Amino acid sequence: MLWAGRTATEIATAVRRGEVSATTVVEEHLHVISARDPEVGAFRLVREQAVEEAQAVQKRPDLAQLPLAGVPVAVKDNLEVAGEATRGGSAGTADVPARADHVTVARLRAAGAVVVGLTNLPELGLVAFGDSAYGIVRNPWDRTRTTGGSSSGSAAAVAAGMVPIALGNDGMGSLRIPAAACGVLAIKPGAGVVPPPANDWDRLTENGPLATTASDLSLALSVLAADPSLAEAWRGGRRVDPRPPMLRSVWADDEEVWEPPPPDSQELFDLRVAYAPQPLPIGLPIDKEFQAAVRAAAETLRVAGHTVVEHGHRLPAWLGPAAVATWLGQAATAADDLDSRSVERRTRALARAGRVLGRLKLNGVRGRERWSAYGADQWFGDADVLVTPVLGTIPPRADRWGERGLLRNVLANLRFAPATGAWNMCGWPAISVPIATHSSGLPIGVQLIAPPGGEPHLLGLAAQLQSAHPPVRPRGYH
User: Fold this and answer.
1) Cβ–Cβ contacts within 10 Å for residue 205, how many?
2) What's the CA angle centered on 116, arms 30 and 167, to 5 degrees?
3) d(C-alpha 333, C-alpha 202), whole Å
4) Is 154 considered catalytic here?
5) Residue 156: what pLDDT?
6) Which of 90, 132, 150, 152 is catalytic?
């Protein structure tokens, strides 16, 4: 029996029951990576020592209780993995092994997962493309197209069936953009739910998982958040207590052992869902097929029993310039510690623009504060969840965008991915769910957004959308 292409839930269940060993699962996935990654470019580093680590998982006395027993995972190469250098997509970073795992990686390992490799990203995670000094990440649906970014390799690895789940992060859409481009799910949790990366872009960036199913996404998020209730949040849109006690100490740095509330104690519910096929200010168009996918998602949720209304307002015009200024300001900060001679032309240009805007006091801070303080809540209205497009257009060509200048990169980013950054600016959770196929043959994802604490709602609705629109893998990667 082949285990590559199976879900994380299926793999962990089989390993816990003794139906397959963690070692066999990891060996099969390493073989698949070896066969598929040369044409995709998802990984900067494949960890052959993962086999030994899988053997260690197999020998753990608590194997039968591990939520991710033997599950192969990929980690974005801007998060520390002990013993491996963290390069962040840049030749200018230090080739020095990390002394310890980032807390999210440590939680995955504690839950029984095995890190099989580090995935590629654009330099310093600054853009929505998948190219860097380490190569070009290509979209498994169409290898002439980019995967999006910046969690480029993580999305590609999941879409191509090389791992069932992957870890990435999202500063202005860096999980949701590649998830939509590659036809997988990804969730950017709200502020404080999952420990962020060391450089969190002044609280803009959150770590989160990518997966092919809502159940896997829920399971992975529950481990990363040390909140086992989230593992069941996908089940048909059931109300979940936001923060019940921990299930086991493997989920968190906590020695207490508690049981979660029984499933039958959760009440069925309906949500107030708003949908906005074109939420962007005038001048930022959205592909007509992407708008149609939002309407289709809204209708699916209406049939599922939710109260659905159209959100007829566009985001405020001042928010776009504030988001761009914030992005460029973070580019300047991220590049400050690197020798400018060692970074790409694109990074130098973005950082230079950010420094100029900073000297002019146009760093997006006031716009971000205004949006966070009351703008997001007022614009969002009284809905529980909002459905919007993730992307503006289909992914651009997979190319060395890092060798191009400021104007081409900024304009291409704004055309391609203009709809995600607002929710980093205010710290609200958001999820990308694949729902349809574009006439180009590429997948279409929709974005679901909720106020703080709404992760269970997002996961439950994602499961309902997947039930009506089953996920499809790209041809040749089943």
Assistant:
1) 24
2) 130
3) 10
4) no
5) 98
6) 150
15: tokens are 């390993």
In one-letter notation, the amino acid at residue 28 is E
447 vs 442: CA distance, rounded Å = 16
91 and 133 in contact (C-beta within 8 Å)? yes
Packing angle between helix 345-359 and helix 406-416, nearest 10 degrees?
A: 90
CA-CA-CA-CA dihedral for 447, 451, 455, 460, to nearest 10: -60
CA–CA gap between residue 417 and residue 288 (Å, rounded): 15
User: Which residue is catalytic, options 154, 174, 222, 229?
Assistant: 174
pLDDT beyond 60 at 46? yes
Spatial distance between the Cα atoms of 233 and 346, rounded to a whole number of angstroms? 40
In sequence order, the 6+-apart residues with CB closer than 8 A to the CB of 298 are 273, 275, 308, 310, 387
Distant-in-sequence, close-in-space partners of 77: CB < 8 Å, separation ≥ 6: 44, 45, 86, 87, 88, 89, 118, 119, 120, 121, 153
Helix axes 152-159, 22-40, angle to 10 degrees: 110
Q: How far apart are CA 90 and CA 159, in angstroms?
A: 24
Rounded Cα distance between 162 and 42, Å, is 9
Q: Is 288 a catalytic residue?
A: no
Over range 342-361, report the average pLDDT. Answer: 96
* Residues forming a β-bridge with 186: 210, 432
The three-class DSSP label of residue 447 is strand
Distance CA(284)–CA(308), nearest Å, equals 25
What's phi and psi for 131, nearest 5 deg?
Answer: -110, 150
Asked if the model's pLDDT at residue 263 lies above 80, the reply is no
Tell me which residue has tokens 């049981």: 259
CA dist 252 → 68, 140, 260, 303 (Å): 14, 35, 15, 38
Output the six-digit token pair for 471: 């996920």
* Strand arrangement of the beta sheet that strand 165-170 belongs to: 43-46, 114-119, 72-76, 165-170, 206-211, 185-188, 430-437, 443-449, 385-389, 272-275, 307-310
**What confidence tens digit (pLDDT) does each residue in 417-448 have?**
999 999 999 999 999 999 999 999 999 999 99
76 catalytically annotated:
yes
Lowest mean pLDDT among 1-15, 21-35, 47-61, 207-221: 1-15
Query: Residue 419: CB partners within 8 Å, gap ≥ 6?
Result: 173, 279, 280, 286, 388, 389, 390, 391, 392, 447
Query: Averaged over 85-107, what is the pLDDT?
Result: 98
Instruction: Supply 17's token pair.
Output: 């029951």
Residue 245 has pLDDT above 60, yes or no: no
Question: Residues of 325-340 as b/e, b for ≥16 C-beta within 10 angstroms?
Answer: bbbbbbbbbbbeebee
Query: Which whole number is the average pLDDT over 392-407?
Result: 97
Averaged pLDDT, 156-161? 98
